[in-house]
């Protein structure tokens, strides 16, 4: 059975369409799918590199803070840390012009790798003297943090304020070996890391 020219052209057209469909389905679509997957992987890899760079930058910043805290007086004895914070607070209050009425330390508590010693403090002074005391606490070389702060007037219409706050300092427990490394979680909100 001989095929006419028209039948041959239709056959060639069908064979070409099937070949084109096979080429698209078996070669071109997988190629573009793979190209899209590679593009997604590149974006993910860029994001991971960016996150890693940020982590290394944060580690460098915190390493400096950690060194400052260690050089500034991070103690390994809770009694010494409490005494140092107590005396420093009294000195700063006197220099600022705040009269400390009450200063009560609490029992040290373990928090992560550190021991935290809390103080409840109340005093009186002017707005300027209270501000100087708060600034001294916030910029202290020893690790100190104001946890809560309340201010109120003693007499209406005067610059005579009462100041109540709780603050904390940290020390390394005696059984903990301090290395040059520190996690970013361990320093959050302490000293210069706040």
Strand content: 15-25%
Low-confidence stretches: 176-194
How many DSSP helices? 3
**What order do the helices and strands follow?**
HHEEEHEE
The CATH homology group name of the largest domain: Ribosomal protein S6/Translation elongation factor EF1B
The chain-level structural class is: alpha+beta
Radius of gyration based on Cα positions: 34 Å
Stated plainly, the CATH topology of the largest domain is called Alpha-Beta Plaits
CATH class of the largest domain: Alpha Beta
Number of strands: 5
- The CATH architecture of the largest domain comes to 2-Layer Sandwich
How far do the termini sit from each other?
92 Å
Which percent range fits the helix content? 40-55%
Can you summarize the main beta sheet? Answer: 5 strands, antiparallel
Mean pLDDT: 82
Count of spatially separate domains:
2
How would you sum up this structure, described in words?
By secondary structure, the chain is of the alpha+beta class. It folds into 2 domains: 7-72; 74-193, Ribosomal protein S6/Translation elongation factor EF1B (Alpha-Beta Plaits), CATH 3.30.70.60. Helix content is 51%, strand content 22%. The protein is built from 3 helices and 5 strands; from the N terminus they run ααβββαββ. It has helices spanning 5-72, 78-96, 127-138, and strands at residues 99-105, 109-111, 114-125, 144-153, 161-171. Strands 1, 2, 3, 4 and 5 form a 5-stranded antiparallel beta sheet that branches. A hairpin with a 7-residue loop joins strand 4 (144-153) and strand 5. Helix 2 runs antiparallel to helix 3. It is rod-shaped. Mean pLDDT is 82; it is low at 176-194.
């Amino acid at each position: 059975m001989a095929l006419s020219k028209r039948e041959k052209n239709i056959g060639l057209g069908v064979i070409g369409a099937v070949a084109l469909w096979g080429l698209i389905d078996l070669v071109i679509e997988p190629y573009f799918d793979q190209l899209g997957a590679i593009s997604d992987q590149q974006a993910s890899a860029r994001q991971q590199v960016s996150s890693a760079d940020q982590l290394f930058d944060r580690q460098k910043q915190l390493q400096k803070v950690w060194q400052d805290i260690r050089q500034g007086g991070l103690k390994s004895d809770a009694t010494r840390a409490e005494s140092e914070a107590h005396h420093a607070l009294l000195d700063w209050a006197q220099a600022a012009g705040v009269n400390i009425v009450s200063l009560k330390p609490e029992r040290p508590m373990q928090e992560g790798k550190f021991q935290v010693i809390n103080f409840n403090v109340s005093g009186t002074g002017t707005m300027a003297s209270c501000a100087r005391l708060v600034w001294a606490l916030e910029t202290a070389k020893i690790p100190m943090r104001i946890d809560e702060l309340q201010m109120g007037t003693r007499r209406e219409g005067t610059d005579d304020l009462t100041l109540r706050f709780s603050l904390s300092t940290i020390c390394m427990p005696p059984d903990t070996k301090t290395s040059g490394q520190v996690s970013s979680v361990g320093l959050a909100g302490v000293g210069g890391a706040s």
